[in-house]
Write a structure and sequence with these properties.
Its main location: cytoplasm. With 295 residues, the protein is mostly helical. Helices cover 65% and strands 0% of the residues. The N terminus is likely disordered.
Length: 295
């Protein structure tokens, strides 16, 4: 287990399951074999142990609860084999989630620990995958994280999805087709060294940094800034497209025209309404567009 994870859990006074302790041979196969031999708790035993830990902070009871569910963490970790990360690392992260679940489990809620813990276990694995799957993060918002994991499950074959498949996935996950295409592009891409040729050959093609002209600032910062500006411009276009014609015209003439802004009263006279009504339309349109930028 990583030093950071171990330190955090020891601070919370929870027992840390050790692969070495459970499997003297030290191999992953031996660990999996060892956890599969640990007996599954009955409902009554689980309830009794959970109450001992909750009411008396009995660490032996917590340890038994954790150990009896380690096989389930292995089962969940195997479901993420396709991400190219070591199953041993996923198991360790899942064990952290299991221990967090044990710490928060309330036996009086009428659910089994395994049903409560699965969300904590998956959350830790998801966080680990997103941090380590690529050098460049592929999902930063909550919606993108959901799309990242569900899109891989939704794809029926290798290769790029056709238009019908994109529409079906977008409808199934309740996201826009643009978001599906963007995430598919991220998943299909690969990390390329910024400063060195991709193959490490000095006589090979130039690295990406060579294509950026120095304009008084660091090329990497320039690239990041221009990429961010391009992304925001794309969101702005999408936001305008979702507005009705009158709202779109008001926003463009009040905020986007390079010439002097049109006044509320001028627009009110043109549309035959009050200036206050124009202000309300403008405020509602800006609110909708801000929501897109915050997503």
């Amino acid at each position: 287990m990583t030093t950071t994870a171990t330190t955090a859990l020891v601070t919370n006074n929870l027992p840390v399951p050790s692969m070495a302790a459970l499997s003297p041979l030290g191999s992953l196969e031996a660990y999996i074999g060892a956890v599969n031999r640990i007996p599954v708790l009955s409902v009554d035993d689980e309830q009794a142990l959970a109450r001992r830990y909750r009411d008396h902070e009995d660490l032996d009871a917590a340890r038994e609860l954790v150990h009896s569910h380690l096989r389930f963490v292995v089962h969940v970790a195997r479901g993420y084999n396709g991400y190219g990360l070591g199953i041993g690392d996923l198991i360790q992260e899942g064990n952290i989630g299991l221990m967090k679940a044990v710490k928060r489990f309330d036996p009086d809620q009428g659910v089994r620990l395994v049903s409560f813990a699965v969300h904590w276990i998956r959350a830790e694995m998801h966080e680990f995958i997103l941090k380590n799957w690529r050098i460049v993060k592929v999902a930063t918002t909550k919606a993108q994280r959901k799309l990242f994991f569900n899109l891989r499950k939704s794809k029926k074959r290798l290769g790029w999805m056709n238009a019908d498949e994109v529409r079906a996935v977008a409808a199934d996950l309740n996201v826009s087709e643009r978001e599906v295409l963007e995430m598919e592009s991220r998943l299909s891409g690969r990390d390329i060294g910024f400063d060195m040729p991709d193959d490490g050959d000095e006589d090979g093609p130039p690295s990406p940094v060579a294509y950026l002209a120095a304009q008084g600032e660091d090329p990497s910062q320039l690239y990041e800034r221009e990429d961010e500006e391009g992304s925001q411009l794309s969101v702005l276009r999408e936001g305008l497209a979702e507005l009705d014609a009158r709202s779109r015209d008001i926003i463009k003439r009040r905020w986007l025209d390079s010439e002097a802004k049109v006044t509320l009263q001028e627009l009110a006279d043109e549309y035959g309404v009050s200036a206050e009504r124009i202000r309300q339309i403008e405020a509602n349109a800006l609110k909708k567009m801000r929501a897109l930028f915050a997503a």
